[in-house]
Amino acid sequence: MDNVIIGKGKLAGKGVYAAKDFEKGELVVPYNLKELSQSEFDALSHSEREWTHSFWGKIYLFSEPARYVNHDDNPSTFPDLDRRGNYALRKIKKGEAITIDDTIELRHELDTFLEAYEIAVNSRDFSKIEPLIADYATFWFANDEYSGKSDIKKACEDIWSKIQNEAYIISNVQWIASNYWVSACTYRFKYSGKRQVYEGHGTNVLRRIDGSWRIVHEHLSM
């Protein structure tokens, strides 16, 4: 916290300000992310839950001062998830507000969720897919509809039995609607096995439930 200070702002009345000059490309606010189990999230107060984000299908708690970095349409820093911190987009003077474009942070959440989902499907292990879908999810594959996790599990296992050693690939993702609570995307998908290939268009609707993004609807059409 030596390089920045917490002052007045729009997040719980707080914001973050530079305590020194920063050069373009310099790390301004590091992320000290704490991964939470579902039970740890459930034990948080409602006010503390506001400072959690979901990346790769997992819940992370942001600590101070990163949690208080405000949004601005012309931000002073870039939220770099890979490097775990906000990096200066330009020279920042001492006393200047440290801000980000928080729509980028949301896109990090959504894109990493799809990455985790793709990996889970390729594992051919439904126990890895299950945490990423809602209990009441509905999946439409071709002309069939599957409701609830037990039906969706049967559908997945049926596909795996038909396509051996397949690779499931999601590409050309377009987020057609996104906010903190509900988001939707379209994409191209491809199931590629040794003898069979299924490909087409997909649509997913996601909802933030108990701290994590989960699929509430999926529609695959070929």
Features:
222 residues; alpha+beta; Beta-clip-like; Nuclear Transport Factor 2, Chain: A; six-stranded mixed sheet; four-stranded mixed sheet; 5 helices; elongated
Please outline what is shown here.
With 222 residues, this protein is of the alpha+beta class. It has five helices and 16 strands.
Walk me through the topology.
Layout: E1 4-11, E2 14-18, E3 27-30, E4 34-36, H1 38-43, H2 46-49, E5 52-55, E6 58-61, E7 70-71, E8 77-80, E9 85-88, E10 97-100, H3 102-122, H4 126-129, E11 133-141, E12 144-147, H5 148-162, E13 167-178, E14 182-192, E15 197-209, E16 212-221
Parallel strand pairs: 7-10, 11-16
Antiparallel strand pairs: 1-2, 2-10, 3-9, 4-6, 5-6, 8-9, 11-12, 13-14, 14-15, 15-16
Describe the structure.
The chain is of the alpha+beta class and 222 residues long. It folds into 2 domains: 4-100, SET domain (Beta-clip-like), CATH 2.170.270.10; 124-221, Nuclear Transport Factor 2, Chain: A, CATH 3.10.450. 23% of the residues lie in helices and 45% in strands. It has 5 helices and 16 strands. It has helices spanning 38-43, 46-49, 102-122, 126-129, 148-162, and strands at 4-11, 14-18, 27-30, 34-36, 52-55, 58-61, 70-71, 77-80, 85-88, 97-100, 133-141, 144-147, 167-178, 182-192, 197-209, 212-221. The strands form 4 sheets. A 6-stranded mixed β-sheet has the order 12-11-16-15-14-13, covered by helices on one side. A 4-stranded mixed β-sheet has the order 1-2-10-7, with no helix packed on it.
